[in-house]
Write a structure and sequence with these properties.
This protein is α/β, with parallel strands linked by helices. The protein has helices at 6-23, 75-91, 95-125, 138-160, 174-190, 219-222, 251-264, 270-276, 293-298, 300-318; strands at 163-169, 194-198, 213-214, 230-235, 241-246.
């Protein structure tokens, strides 16, 4: 009895798992079209014969979602049987059994490669589905970065008129010591007022925010602060207290989080946020409704057109 090479077995089992993930995209649909309902007058001795059954739903010539588990080499058949062939070859490692696993594995890899090639082709030809379109050339990224900086300055200037920042710290916290200079930049360069609040009554050891206040009323505890440094966006009237972050943040992260929370709470508009964002806004099709359940399974053009139109409608709204 021969021993199974562990590497070969690992490749085979990995192929099962990867192929199973790809095969999950297929949908089984064994339902026949529903019958007709018609009225029969009981006073008539000879009721009319039932009308012929309705025609089957239109099916695109490129659509095949049956994935019949009884059809050899279909995705469902491979998903069902390949693990059995592997198990059988492990228990009975003859040349024939081992070769059967390897040959079927080759079929699976070739089917996956064919699908990959089709996927790549569609990525090139169908840009509305290509999220990598957000990645730009170096020149495009430079232009976007310049535009984003202008948008960011505008957003932060708008925030400064409506809110400030509460900065909770401890005098013995090394991360608070590192956070303080960055918050000072936010205050000095962006005009957003920062109020430093000491939890232990001591000043920051590096001299920043000497006009600090002491949290004598346990405000940090009421706000659920778990660790410092902790930053909150606070409206000018003190009614809105919005968490920004806990833990040490970089200068860019501070700005991004402040802008995000300002947008989420209505301090800046969606357009202002998008101008300041480092990521291109893309159309989304997550709320499609009123889809025919039968046609959605049997007519690929029907579903494609609905989703495509939704994306185009979103694109128009963005631009």
């Amino acid at each position: 009895m021969m021993n199974v090479n562990k590497k070969t077995l690992f490749i085979a089992i990995s192929a099962v798992l990867s192929f199973t993930v790809a095969a999950n995209d297929y949908v089984n649909d064994d339902k026949e079209p529903g019958g007709w309902h018609f009225y029969v007058d009981p006073s008539k001795a000879d009721p009319p014969p039932p009308p012929p059954p309705p025609p089957a739903p239109k099916q695109s010539p490129n659509t095949d979602i049956s994935s019949d588990p009884n059809k050899p080499m279909s995705s469902a058949w491979l998903r069902e049987n390949f693990p059995k062939f592997v198990d059988y070859a492990i228990d009975n490692p003859s040349d024939e059994n081992t070769q059967r696993v390897r040959f079927i594995h080759r079929v699976m890899m070739d089917k996956a490669s064919t699908f990959r090639d089709s996927w790549v082709k569609d990525v090139m030809e169908n840009p509305i589905l290509n999220e990598t379109g957000r990645e730009q050339t170096e020149f495009g990224r430079m232009a976007k970065n310049e535009s984003r900086r202008v948008g960011e300055d505008k957003a932060l200037a708008e925030i400064a008129t409506k809110a400030g920042v509460w900065f909770f710290y401890r005098s013995d916290c090394p991360y608070c010591k590192k956070q303080a200079p960055l918050l000072s930049r936010i205050e000095n360069e962006r005009g957003i007022d920062v109020s430093a609040i000491s939890l232990d009554g001591g000043p920051l050891p590096n001299g920043y925010f000497q006009n600090f206040v002491i949290d004598r009323k346990g405000v940090a505890k009421k706000l659920g602060v778990m660790r410092v440094p902790a930053m909150f966006l606070v409206s000018m009237d003190g009614k809105d207290i919005i968490p920004i972050a806990e833990g040490l943040q970089s200068f860019s992260s501070l700005k991004e989080l402040m802008i995000l929370q300002a947008k989420n709470n209505g301090y800046i508009t969606e357009d202002t946020f998008n101008d300041a964002s480092s990521v291109e806004t893309i159309p989304r099709a997550s709320d499609i409704k009123d889809i025919d359940p039968v046609r959605s399974l049997n007519d690929s053009d029907y579903l494609n057109n609905i989703i495509r139109q939704k994306l185009f409608d979103q694109q128009k709204e963005l631009y």
